[in-house]
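Before drawing any conclusions, I looked closely at one protein's amino acid sequence and its backbone structure tokens, quoted below without any editing.
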Amino acid sequence: MRGRRWLGFVPTGFQLRRFSSFEAPPVPPLRRVVVTGVGMVTPLGCGVETTWKRLIEGECGVRAIGPDDLKMNGFEPEVKMYTFDQLTSKVAAVVPYGSSSGEFDEQLWLNSKEHRSIARFIGYALCAADEALKDANWMPTEQNEKEQTGVSLGAGTGSISDILEASRMICEKNIRRLSPFFIPRILINMASGHVSMKYGFQGPNHSSVTACATGAHSIGDAARMIQFGDTNVMVAGGTEASIDALSIAGFCRLRALSTKYNSKPHEASRPFDCGRDGFVIGEGSGVMVLEELEHARKRGAKIYAELRGYGTSGDAHHITQPHIGGRGAVLAMTRALKQSGLHPSQVDYINAHATSTPLGDAAEANAIKCVFSDHATSGALSVSSTKGATGHLLGAAGAVEAIFTVLAIHHGVAPLTLNLSEPDPVFNGGFMPLTASKEMTIKSGLSNSFGFGGTNSCLLFTSTN
């Protein structure tokens, strides 16, 4: 065989052809992606209408927590009380429960017999997805439509409370009581899986896990699946249920949570304010229905906005702290702008990631000034962080805040930054976060999300009018 080119096995009846040159067919243009439905479960309430109304009116979903909020029902009362006493942060943004309008109904989403494999974070996702699909009027019954509908739902931590309870059983030598549904309850991709199974969606079934950028990455990844023709419709977003003993204790030990405002819960989450001392842990879910533009038009769907840009980056700096200049945030915003084709001066509103941590808020503000320059300092660019009202929803934050950005475009109202009484010195002149909700024409809006490990995501939405 020496001197000859080995061409491998050639099936009988096939002939090899030599191409002197090869011209690839032209690459089809990327398809356009629009938002046709939204759904939310947040500390401000269950449902988009309730959450949005309370947000715009300046209400707050943060409250004081007690021992019963720690999800330690299997532990001895003295152990539960000791754990609670040791926590340095005693405030949280908790989803309101109940059977009334605007409340999350546990009986409906968590407590039925067929839901034994559904943990709290999965239940939040199911509830938000149901609202989003109904809002989009997309409940396909035809097989081909189900095959062209996918799900992209992620979470940051999954069900830590289930892990704590299972660990207790092992320590008490009671492993026989461990639920056979333990593993399916804690797997993060099961939120996406349950939504897919409930509605029979057989398109891409995907889950991102990128800490506090999870929800935004899930939406951005879903949009790309539509852009590249993998599917026509995606149910996308993030979910989190992190109000439990181990999650709160872990963030307390990390010194990431607010501790100065335990007696004034509504004032604890204060993005961009000089008095900020850490974030307020929150929970909930945000889900949107993304759809290929012509597919949406053909069926007469309501269109909230178009997703024009998706930028991602890595800080390559520190496991929990951003670079003070916000270089990762700069890259993510710049890449989202480049993909959208918009000039920075064409962006009207930014929903900032700002979590109420001293370093993170300042780094993001510096990044915004770097990218938007004169447009930011002129006062023409409106900026706010909605975490003053919702706390930090971790893996759900990026999705919920992306929906807030879409609603800001749709309703022509930029939401306020709660508890901003003394802005950080990085702000000056016309560059100042909103302290009151502002009615304005918003043709384009940016939503920032950054996570531990230096992962960054930026979503850019525009009006279709």
About this structure: The first strand starts at residue 33 and ends at 42.
